[in-house]
Specification:
alpha/beta, Rossmann fold, 6-stranded parallel β-sheet, two-stranded parallel ribbon, about 40% helix, globular, disordered C terminus
Length: about 325
């Protein structure tokens, strides 16, 4: 496979993936300035001009709370934008498509989910990804496009524009603030570093390159270690060397969501390298280097404008 077009290439995940791909492929890196996925004519022109061998679709509007405030934009970008890319691939003859979905399509579960678990989206962002997945499956099964969907869990790494529970715990410990665990602190989440997501995507590209018959596969991606919020808070406090936590009232975020990764390990030979402790150590180092813990919380980019996410392809939702 010679040429890969990546949407959302300048975003958080794209900055990890594109350098990996460029080691062995020609990469056409697009972001929202180059490609508005809601404009079907523009999408077709870009695909026709570059004629890639594979499209890697990362671009998306992200965030659970913003999606509730503006569902139409989320469906326009995340769902219809995906359909526009698939249709352009069909018209131009691009036969391979890699789509970045989200584990949030499964909603919440006290038991680990897997690729066959039911869809149960809790907000328009997740629902827009469910609808996009159906489009990918349809174009694969009926219109001849080899497709792989990856569903990463919460992507946690240095430089993320969105604050997540793990980063919040580390920042509060660095500031000497109290970490509040909502509910009993026993709900479980798993996380994954963007380095490992990019590695999984590279493996998916290689698998698509070998595809002979029209194929459609889905892989859930995480680092394979689900911890309770209490365990994560204790780990952050221990590694920072200071801090404390207390229990707060249960909220609508007090639910579990984590996944098995057996299928990705077996079929893709996916082997995550960055565990929870390493993620926290990297966050500590990053926050100290950038002195992020000196900034008030609203300056950390937690509520950045949703349109900026079109370039990113990274979503941090509960």
């Amino acid at each position: 496979m010679n040429k890969i077009l990546v949407t959302g290439a300048s975003g958080f995940l794209g900055t990890y993936l594109v350098p990996l791909l460029r080691r062995s492929h020609e990469v056409v890196a697009t972001d929202r300035e180059d490609l508005d996925v809601t404009d079907i004519t523009a999408v077709h022109q870009v695909i026709k001009r570059h004629r890639p061998d594979l499209v890697c679709h990362l671009a998306a509007l992200c965030g659970a709370a913003p999606s509730r405030e503006n569902p139409p934009d989320y469906y326009a970008v995340n769902t219809l934008g995906t359909v526009h890319l698939l249709e352009a691939c069909r018209r131009v003859g691009v036969e391979r498509f890699l789509f970045s979905s989200s584990l949030t399509v499964h909603g919440a579960s006290s038991d680990p989910v897997d690729e066959s678990s039911a869809f149960s989206p809790r907000h328009p962002y997740a629902a827009s990804k469910v609808a996009a997945e159906f489009a990918v499956r349809d174009y694969s099964q009926h219109l001849g496009i080899h497709s792989i969907i990856l569903r990463p869990t919460l992507v946690v790494g240095e430089g993320s524009k969105e604050l997540h529970a793990l980063g919040d715990f580390v920042l509060k410990a660095l500031r000497g603030e109290e970490i509040v665990l909502f509910g009993a602190g026993d709900h479980r989440r798993d996380f994954v570093h963007p380095q490992d997501v990019a590695a999984a995507m590279l493996l998916a590209v290689k698998r698509l390159d070998r595809a002979l018959d029209t194929s459609y596969e889905v892989f859930n991606i995480s680092q394979g270690q689900a911890l309770s919020m209490r365990e994560l808070a204790d780990l952050a406090i221990r590694l920072v060397g200071s801090g404390r936590h207390r229990l707060g009232p249960r909220t609508n975020q007090s639910f579990s969501l984590y996944t098995l990764i057996d299928r990705a390990q077996q079929a893709l030979e996916f082997a995550p390298r960055v565990g929870a402790e390493d993620m926290i150590r990297r966050l500590i180092r990053h926050f100290k280097e950038t002195r992020a813990y000196d900034l008030p919380p609203h300056d950390l980019g937690h509520h950045h404008h949703q349109r900026a996410a079109i370039a990113g392809g990274l979503c941090q939702e509960p």
